[in-house]
Write a structure and sequence with these properties.
The chain is mainly α. It has 16 helices and three strands. Bound molecules: acetyl coenzyme *A. One of its GO terms (molecular function) is citrate synthase activity.
C-alpha cells in the first residue's frame, strides 16, 4: 500500500479556477497571471472573475456590487451569537462560530454564487464588529456606499481611509483570494463532497485556515521579528532555531519550490508604501539571512519566502492589529473557498481516502 503522508504530490481533482505553478513561481486565476491583475482591478471584479470565470461587464459588476452591499449586515442571530462569546476567544474562533450561525434553512440548496456573495460580504462585518467590541469602541455599521475593502477598513477604524491605504489592502486581498488545493480549500471541498451546505463547508475551511502551518503564520512572523529585533547576532540566532528543529515562520511551501510570486508582489508593494523604515529594514535583513541559513542547513529542500512573511509586514504597515491578520486573509480566501465548493458540487464524488491499519 503506497502511503502519501499529508497527501504530498497527490492530485485529487481537476479544477478550472486557478493554477499554482510551483516550479515557475506563477499563480493563475481563470487564465490570468495574478501579478497582472492584482493591483489594477477591484476585489469585486476579481471575485466575479473567480466565481463566473470571466471579468464582469459594467452591468454585471453593478449587480455583483449591489449584492455585496446588500448582504453586509449581520442577521439578528449572528449578532446575538457574536455578542455572547467570551472575550478570550481568538478572532478566528469567533469568525468560525459566528459564520456557522448563518447556516439557517436558506443555505440548504445546492451552493450558488448568491450564497457565496452573501457569506463573503458579511465576513468583514463579523471581524470588525468583534474587534471594536473588544476595544470598547462603538460598533460601526456597514456602509451602503463604500466598496468591499473600503467598507472593511471603515468598519474597523470608524472613518473612511485614504485611497492609497485601501489600494494596498485590496491588492493584498486580491493576491490571496485563491490558491489551488491548499489545506483549507481541501477541507471545504471534503465537507462539500458529502453534499453538506456552503456554511458548513466554509466553517471547515476557517477551522483549517486557523492553524500556524497555514493561515496562522503571519502573527508568528511578527513574533519572530519582534524576538529578532532584540538580538545582536541575527544569523546565529536563526541558525540555532533551524538546527533545533524549529520552523522559521513565513518560509517554505508545499507547492512553491521557487519564489512565491505573491511574496514578491507584496514585498514590492510594501517597499513603495513604507519607504525607509526600521521595522521594514529588519524584515528585509531577516529574509536575506533566513534564506542563507535555510540553504545551508536544509540543502536541496528549496525553501523560499512564502506569502505570509511579507503579509505580516504589510498588515503591520497599514496598522492592522495582529489579531486581524488571519481573519483578513480568510476574508479574501472566502472567494476561492466558495468557488471550489461550487465546483465540487458540479461534478461531485465524495472525498473518502483510505488508511492502512497498523494497530493491534
Ligand atoms: N523553517 C525551517 N525548516 C523548514 C521550513 C521552515 N519554515 N519549512 C520546511 N522546512 C524543512 C523541514 O524541516 C523539512 O526538513 P527535513 O527534510 O530535514 O525533515 C523540509 O524542509 C521539508 O519540510 P516539510 O515540513 O516536509 O514540508 P511541507 O511541504 O510538509 O510543509 C510548510 C510546508 C507547512 C509550509 C512548511 O514549510 C512550514 O511549516 N513553514 C512554516 C510555516 C509557514 O510559513 N506557513 C505558511 C505557509 S503559506 C500558507 O499556508 C498560506
Amino acid at each position: 500500500m503506497n502511503i502519501q503522508k499529508g497527501l504530498k504530490g497527490v492530485v485529487v481533482t481537476e479544477t478550472q479556477i486557478g493554477e499554482v505553478d510551483g516550479t515557475e513561481g506563477k499563480l493563475i486565476y481563470r487564465g490570468y497571471d495574478v501579478r497582472d491583475i492584482a493591483s489594477s482591478y477591484t476585489f469585486e471584479e476579481i471575485a466575479h472573475l473567480i466565481w463566473y470565470g470571466e471579468f464582469p461587464t459594467i452591468e454585471q459588476l453593478d449587480q455583483t456590487d449591489f449584492m455585496f452591499k446588500k448582504y453586509r449586515k449581520l442577521t439578528p442571530v449572528m449578532e446575538k451569537v457574536l455578542t455572547s462569546l467570551p472575550e478570550n476567544m481568538t478572532a478566528m474562533s469567533v469568525l468560525r462560530t459566528v459564520l456557522s450561525a448563518a447556516g439557517d434553512d436558506t443555505f440548504i440548496n445546492k451552493p450558488s454564487i448568491e450564497e457565496a456573495i452573501k457569506l463573503t460580504a458579511v465576513i468583514p462585518t463579523i471581524i470588525a464588529y468583534r474587534f471594536r467590541l473588544l476595544e470598547g469602541k462603538v460598533v460601526v455599521p456597514p456602509s451602503k456606499d463604500l466598496s468591499h475593502v473600503e467598507n472593511y477598513l471603515y468598519m474597523l477604524n470608524g472613518e473612511k481611509e485614504a485611497e492609497e491605504l485601501v489600494r494596498v489592502l485590496e491588492t493584498y486581498m486580491n493576491l490571496t483570494m485563491e490558491h489551488g488545493m491548499n489545506a483549507s480549500t481541501f477541507a471545504a471541498r471534503v465537507t462539500a463532497s458529502t453534499e453538506s451546505d456552503m456554511v458548513s463547508s466554509i466553517t471547515s475551511a476557517i477551522g483549517t485556515m486557523k492553524g500556524p502551518l497555514h493561515g496562522g503564520a503571519p502573527s508568528e512572523v511578527i513574533n519572530l521579528l519582534d524576538e529578532l529585533s532584540l538580538v545582536d547576532n541575527l544569523e546565529e540566532h536563526l541558525r540555532a532555531k533551524v538546527q533545533s528543529g524549529q520552523k522559521l515562520m513565513g518560509f517554505g511551501h508545499r507547492v512553491y519550490k521557487t519564489i512565491d510570486p505573491r511574496s514578491v508582489a507584496i514585498k514590492n508593494l510594501l517597499i513603495s508604501l513604507v519607504g525607509k523604515d526600521e521595522w521594514l529594514d529588519l524584515a528585509l535583513k531577516v529574509e536575506q539571512l533566513a534564506l542563507k541559513v535555510l540553504q545551508e542547513e536544509k540543502p536541496g529542500r528549496s525553501l523560499y519566502t512564502n506569502v505570509e512573511f511579507f503579509a505580516a509586514a504589510i498588515m503591520k504597515a497599514i496598522s492592522l492589529d495582529p489579531s486581524l491578520f488571519t481573519p483578513t486573509f480568510s476574508a479574501s480566501r472566502m472567494v476561492g473557498w466558495t468557488a471550489h465548493i461550487m465546483e465540487q458540487a458540479e461534478d461531485n464524488v465524495i472525498i473518502r481516502p483510505l488508511s492502512k491499519y497498523i494497530g493491534k
